[in-house]
From TrEMBL, chain A:
Keywords: Cytoplasmic vesicle, Endoplasmic reticulum, Membrane, Transmembrane, Transmembrane helix. Pfam families: VMA21. The chain crosses the membrane at residues 37-59, 71-92. GO terms for cellular component: cytoplasmic vesicle. GO terms for biological process: vacuolar proton-transporting V-type ATPase complex assembly. It comes from Drosophila grimshawi. This is GH14552. It comes from the Eukaryota. The keyword Thylakoid does not apply. The keyword Ribosomal protein does not apply. Residues 1-27 are annotated as: Disordered.
UniProtKB/TrEMBL annotation, chain B:
This is V-type proton ATPase proteolipid subunit. Residues 21-80, 99-158 form the V-ATPase proteolipid subunit C-like domain. Keywords: Hydrogen ion transport, Ion transport, Membrane, Transmembrane, Transmembrane helix, Transport, Vacuole. It comes from Drosophila grimshawi. The keyword Transport applies. V-ATPase is a heteromultimeric enzyme made up of two complexes: the ATP-hydrolytic V1 complex and the proton translocation V0 complex. The V1 complex consists of three catalytic AB heterodimers that form a heterohexamer, three peripheral stalks each consisting of EG heterodimers, one central rotor including subunits D and F, and the regulatory subunits C and H. The proton translocation complex V0 consists of the proton transport subunit a, a ring of proteolipid subunits c9c'', rotary subunit d, subunits e and f, and the accessory subunits VhaAC45 and ATP6AP2. The keyword Lipoprotein does not apply. The gene is Dgri\GH22892. Belongs to the V-ATPase proteolipid subunit family. It is found in: Membrane; Vacuole membrane. GO terms for biological process: vacuolar acidification. Coiled coil: none annotated. NCBIfam families: V_ATP_synt_C. It is a multi-pass membrane protein. Proton-conducting pore forming of the V0 complex of vacuolar(H+)-ATPase (V-ATPase), a multisubunit enzyme composed of a peripheral complex (V1) that hydrolyzes ATP and a membrane integral complex (V0) that translocates protons. V-ATPase is responsible for acidifying and maintaining the pH of intracellular compartments and in some cell types, is targeted to the plasma membrane, where it is responsible for acidifying the extracellular environment.
Protein backbone atom coordinates (compact mmCIF):
# COMPACT_ATOMS: atom_id res chain seq x y z
CA UNK A 1 0.00 0.00 0.00
CA UNK A 2 2.90 2.24 0.90
CA UNK A 3 4.72 1.64 -2.38
CA UNK A 4 1.52 2.09 -4.27
CA UNK A 5 0.91 5.49 -2.74
CA UNK A 6 4.56 6.46 -3.39
CA UNK A 7 4.22 5.45 -7.00
CA UNK A 8 1.09 7.49 -7.32
CA UNK A 9 2.80 10.48 -5.73
CA UNK A 10 5.80 10.20 -8.05
CA UNK A 11 3.60 10.00 -11.08
CA UNK A 12 1.59 12.97 -9.90
CA UNK A 13 4.72 15.05 -9.30
CA UNK A 14 6.05 14.24 -12.76
CA UNK A 15 2.78 15.17 -14.39
CA UNK A 16 2.70 18.39 -12.36
CA UNK A 17 6.22 19.28 -13.54
CA UNK A 18 5.27 18.62 -17.14
CA UNK A 19 2.16 20.72 -16.73
CA UNK A 20 4.21 23.54 -15.21
CA UNK A 21 6.75 23.62 -18.05
CA UNK A 22 3.93 23.42 -20.60
CA UNK A 23 2.21 26.31 -18.86
CA UNK A 24 5.45 28.32 -18.94
CA UNK A 25 5.89 27.72 -22.67
CA UNK A 26 2.24 28.61 -23.17
CA UNK A 27 2.77 31.81 -21.21
CA UNK A 28 5.77 32.85 -23.33
CA UNK A 29 3.79 32.03 -26.49
CA UNK A 30 0.86 34.09 -25.22
CA UNK A 31 3.21 36.96 -24.40
CA UNK A 32 4.72 36.99 -27.89
CA UNK A 33 1.22 36.78 -29.44
CA UNK A 34 0.09 39.66 -27.22
CA UNK A 35 3.06 41.76 -28.33
CA UNK A 36 2.28 41.14 -32.01
CA UNK A 37 -1.46 41.82 -31.61
CA UNK A 38 -0.83 44.95 -29.54
CA UNK A 39 1.65 46.27 -32.11
CA UNK A 40 -0.71 45.76 -35.04
CA UNK A 41 -3.75 47.10 -33.18
CA UNK A 42 -1.90 50.28 -32.19
CA UNK A 43 -0.68 50.55 -35.79
CA UNK A 44 -4.26 50.28 -37.07
CA UNK A 45 -5.59 52.78 -34.53
CA UNK A 46 -2.85 55.42 -34.67
CA UNK A 47 -1.49 55.22 -38.22
CA UNK A 48 -4.59 56.75 -39.89
CA UNK A 49 -4.85 59.52 -37.29
CA UNK A 50 -1.17 60.40 -37.65
CA UNK A 51 -1.42 60.17 -41.44
CA UNK A 52 -4.49 62.43 -41.50
CA UNK A 53 -2.94 65.25 -39.51
CA UNK A 54 0.57 64.86 -40.96
CA UNK A 55 -0.79 64.90 -44.50
CA UNK A 56 -3.01 67.86 -43.69
CA UNK A 57 -0.19 69.93 -42.22
CA UNK A 58 2.35 68.83 -44.80
CA UNK A 59 0.12 69.30 -47.85
CA UNK A 60 -1.13 72.65 -46.55
CA UNK A 61 2.46 73.72 -46.05
CA UNK A 62 3.70 72.49 -49.42
CA UNK A 63 0.85 73.51 -51.73
CA UNK A 64 -0.73 76.72 -50.53
CA UNK A 65 -2.70 77.01 -53.77
CA UNK A 66 -4.87 74.01 -52.92
CA UNK A 67 -8.23 74.88 -51.40
CA UNK A 68 -8.89 73.76 -47.85
CA UNK A 69 -11.57 71.28 -48.90
CA UNK A 70 -9.17 69.57 -51.30
CA UNK A 71 -6.54 69.31 -48.58
CA UNK A 72 -9.12 67.77 -46.24
CA UNK A 73 -10.22 65.27 -48.88
CA UNK A 74 -6.66 64.33 -49.71
CA UNK A 75 -5.72 63.76 -46.10
CA UNK A 76 -8.91 61.74 -45.44
CA UNK A 77 -8.31 59.49 -48.44
CA UNK A 78 -4.67 59.09 -47.43
CA UNK A 79 -5.68 58.14 -43.88
CA UNK A 80 -8.14 55.51 -45.14
CA UNK A 81 -5.53 54.05 -47.52
CA UNK A 82 -2.96 53.87 -44.70
CA UNK A 83 -5.59 52.18 -42.52
CA UNK A 84 -6.22 49.49 -45.11
CA UNK A 85 -2.51 48.90 -45.65
CA UNK A 86 -2.13 48.32 -41.90
CA UNK A 87 -5.15 45.99 -41.89
CA UNK A 88 -3.73 44.05 -44.83
CA UNK A 89 -0.42 43.66 -42.99
CA UNK A 90 -2.25 42.33 -39.93
CA UNK A 91 -4.32 39.84 -41.92
CA UNK A 92 -1.17 38.67 -43.76
CA UNK A 93 0.67 38.21 -40.47
CA UNK A 94 -2.27 36.43 -38.83
CA UNK A 95 -2.67 34.07 -41.79
CA UNK A 96 0.96 33.18 -42.50
CA UNK A 97 2.49 33.82 -39.08
CA UNK A 98 -0.18 31.70 -37.38
CA UNK A 99 0.31 28.72 -39.70
CA UNK A 100 4.10 29.01 -39.33
CA UNK A 101 4.01 28.77 -35.54
CA UNK A 102 1.59 25.86 -35.76
CA UNK A 103 3.88 23.89 -38.08
CA UNK A 104 6.84 24.73 -35.83
CA UNK A 105 4.88 23.39 -32.87
CA UNK A 106 4.23 20.14 -34.70
CA UNK B 1 -27.06 94.68 -38.67
CA UNK B 2 -25.76 91.19 -38.14
CA UNK B 3 -29.21 89.97 -37.15
CA UNK B 4 -30.56 90.92 -40.59
CA UNK B 5 -27.70 88.95 -42.16
CA UNK B 6 -28.46 85.95 -40.00
CA UNK B 7 -32.13 86.07 -40.75
CA UNK B 8 -31.63 85.87 -44.54
CA UNK B 9 -33.07 82.70 -46.06
CA UNK B 10 -29.61 81.50 -47.13
CA UNK B 11 -28.01 81.88 -43.71
CA UNK B 12 -30.62 81.19 -41.02
CA UNK B 13 -29.66 80.95 -37.36
CA UNK B 14 -30.37 77.20 -37.36
CA UNK B 15 -28.09 76.49 -40.37
CA UNK B 16 -25.19 75.01 -38.38
CA UNK B 17 -27.62 72.75 -36.48
CA UNK B 18 -27.76 70.41 -39.47
CA UNK B 19 -23.98 70.33 -39.78
CA UNK B 20 -23.56 69.58 -36.09
CA UNK B 21 -26.15 66.81 -36.32
CA UNK B 22 -24.28 65.42 -39.34
CA UNK B 23 -20.98 65.28 -37.47
CA UNK B 24 -22.66 63.78 -34.40
CA UNK B 25 -24.63 61.13 -36.33
CA UNK B 26 -21.50 60.14 -38.30
CA UNK B 27 -19.65 59.11 -35.16
CA UNK B 28 -22.68 57.98 -33.10
CA UNK B 29 -24.04 55.41 -35.58
CA UNK B 30 -20.58 54.24 -36.66
CA UNK B 31 -19.62 53.67 -33.04
CA UNK B 32 -22.94 51.86 -32.45
CA UNK B 33 -22.23 49.46 -35.31
CA UNK B 34 -18.61 49.00 -34.25
CA UNK B 35 -19.66 48.28 -30.67
CA UNK B 36 -22.18 45.66 -31.78
CA UNK B 37 -19.61 44.06 -34.06
CA UNK B 38 -16.98 43.98 -31.32
CA UNK B 39 -19.34 42.58 -28.69
CA UNK B 40 -20.93 39.93 -30.91
CA UNK B 41 -17.66 38.63 -32.33
CA UNK B 42 -16.07 38.98 -28.89
CA UNK B 43 -18.50 36.44 -27.42
CA UNK B 44 -17.57 34.08 -30.27
CA UNK B 45 -13.85 34.55 -29.59
CA UNK B 46 -14.34 33.95 -25.87
CA UNK B 47 -16.30 30.75 -26.50
CA UNK B 48 -13.78 29.50 -29.09
CA UNK B 49 -10.62 30.35 -27.11
CA UNK B 50 -11.55 27.93 -24.33
CA UNK B 51 -10.74 24.99 -26.60
CA UNK B 52 -8.31 26.54 -29.16
CA UNK B 53 -6.33 29.35 -27.49
CA UNK B 54 -3.63 29.26 -30.20
CA UNK B 55 -6.10 30.70 -32.72
CA UNK B 56 -6.59 34.00 -30.85
CA UNK B 57 -4.44 36.01 -33.24
CA UNK B 58 -6.48 34.86 -36.23
CA UNK B 59 -9.79 35.35 -34.47
CA UNK B 60 -9.10 38.96 -33.40
CA UNK B 61 -9.60 40.03 -37.04
CA UNK B 62 -13.40 40.66 -36.78
CA UNK B 63 -12.80 42.92 -33.77
CA UNK B 64 -10.18 44.90 -35.68
CA UNK B 65 -12.50 45.23 -38.68
CA UNK B 66 -15.31 46.46 -36.44
CA UNK B 67 -12.92 49.05 -35.03
CA UNK B 68 -12.15 50.29 -38.54
CA UNK B 69 -15.86 51.09 -39.03
CA UNK B 70 -15.60 53.55 -36.16
CA UNK B 71 -12.51 55.14 -37.76
CA UNK B 72 -14.57 55.80 -40.93
CA UNK B 73 -17.12 57.68 -38.85
CA UNK B 74 -14.35 59.51 -37.02
CA UNK B 75 -12.79 60.72 -40.27
CA UNK B 76 -16.09 62.10 -41.59
CA UNK B 77 -16.98 63.66 -38.24
CA UNK B 78 -13.60 65.43 -38.10
CA UNK B 79 -14.00 66.64 -41.69
CA UNK B 80 -17.47 68.05 -41.00
CA UNK B 81 -16.47 69.58 -37.68
CA UNK B 82 -13.60 71.37 -39.43
CA UNK B 83 -16.06 73.16 -41.71
CA UNK B 84 -18.54 74.25 -39.04
CA UNK B 85 -18.80 77.97 -38.53
CA UNK B 86 -21.10 80.71 -37.31
CA UNK B 87 -24.43 81.11 -39.17
CA UNK B 88 -23.16 84.21 -40.99
CA UNK B 89 -20.70 82.20 -43.09
CA UNK B 90 -22.31 78.74 -42.87
CA UNK B 91 -25.16 78.41 -45.35
CA UNK B 92 -28.19 76.21 -44.86
CA UNK B 93 -27.21 74.28 -48.01
CA UNK B 94 -23.86 73.35 -46.42
CA UNK B 95 -25.72 72.17 -43.35
CA UNK B 96 -27.93 69.86 -45.42
CA UNK B 97 -24.89 68.51 -47.29
CA UNK B 98 -23.08 67.79 -44.05
CA UNK B 99 -26.14 66.16 -42.49
CA UNK B 100 -26.41 63.90 -45.52
CA UNK B 101 -22.71 63.02 -45.38
CA UNK B 102 -22.88 62.19 -41.68
CA UNK B 103 -26.03 60.09 -42.03
CA UNK B 104 -24.66 58.14 -45.01
CA UNK B 105 -21.46 57.11 -43.26
CA UNK B 106 -23.27 56.59 -39.95
CA UNK B 107 -25.97 54.21 -41.15
CA UNK B 108 -23.59 52.40 -43.53
CA UNK B 109 -21.27 51.87 -40.57
CA UNK B 110 -24.18 50.63 -38.46
CA UNK B 111 -25.13 48.07 -41.11
CA UNK B 112 -21.53 47.00 -41.67
CA UNK B 113 -20.96 46.63 -37.93
CA UNK B 114 -24.04 44.39 -37.60
CA UNK B 115 -22.81 42.24 -40.49
CA UNK B 116 -19.28 42.00 -39.08
CA UNK B 117 -20.62 41.02 -35.66
CA UNK B 118 -22.81 38.21 -36.91
CA UNK B 119 -20.28 36.90 -39.45
CA UNK B 120 -17.43 37.21 -36.97
CA UNK B 121 -19.27 35.26 -34.28
CA UNK B 122 -20.21 32.36 -36.52
CA UNK B 123 -16.94 32.45 -38.47
CA UNK B 124 -14.69 32.36 -35.42
CA UNK B 125 -16.63 29.47 -33.89
CA UNK B 126 -16.46 27.60 -37.20
CA UNK B 127 -12.74 28.29 -37.71
CA UNK B 128 -11.99 26.52 -34.42
CA UNK B 129 -13.42 23.30 -35.86
CA UNK B 130 -12.40 23.68 -39.52
CA UNK B 131 -9.33 25.94 -40.01
CA UNK B 132 -9.90 26.10 -43.78
CA UNK B 133 -12.98 28.23 -43.09
CA UNK B 134 -10.60 31.09 -42.22
CA UNK B 135 -10.17 32.26 -45.82
CA UNK B 136 -13.93 32.31 -46.34
CA UNK B 137 -14.46 34.19 -43.09
CA UNK B 138 -11.92 36.83 -44.14
CA UNK B 139 -13.60 37.24 -47.54
CA UNK B 140 -17.07 37.64 -46.01
CA UNK B 141 -15.69 40.11 -43.46
CA UNK B 142 -14.09 42.15 -46.24
CA UNK B 143 -17.39 42.25 -48.13
CA UNK B 144 -19.11 43.43 -44.95
CA UNK B 145 -16.37 46.00 -44.42
CA UNK B 146 -16.71 47.57 -47.88
CA UNK B 147 -20.35 48.40 -47.07
CA UNK B 148 -18.99 50.90 -44.58
CA UNK B 149 -16.39 52.03 -47.13
CA UNK B 150 -19.13 52.76 -49.66
CA UNK B 151 -20.82 55.00 -47.09
CA UNK B 152 -17.50 56.76 -46.52
CA UNK B 153 -17.01 57.32 -50.26
CA UNK B 154 -20.52 58.80 -50.62
CA UNK B 155 -19.96 60.97 -47.55
CA UNK B 156 -16.66 62.36 -48.89
CA UNK B 157 -18.25 62.92 -52.29
CA UNK B 158 -21.12 64.81 -50.65
CA UNK B 159 -18.63 66.77 -48.59
CA UNK B 160 -16.91 68.12 -51.71
CA UNK B 161 -20.18 69.62 -53.05
Amino acid sequence: MNTKSKKGNGGGGDAGHNKLSKQQSDDSKDYSALKVVLFYCSLIVFLPVVTFFALKGYVLERFFTMSEIKVNIGSAVGAVIALHIALGLYVYRAYFGGSKTQSKQD
Amino acid sequence: MSSTEQLSPENPIYGPFFGVMGAASAIIFSALGAAYGTAKSGTGIAAMSVMRPELIMKSIIPVVMAGIIAIYGLVVAVLIAGQLDTPVTYTLYKGFIHLGAGLSVGFSGLAAGFAIGIVGDAGVRGTAQQPRLFVGMILILIFAEVLGLYGLIVAIYLYTK
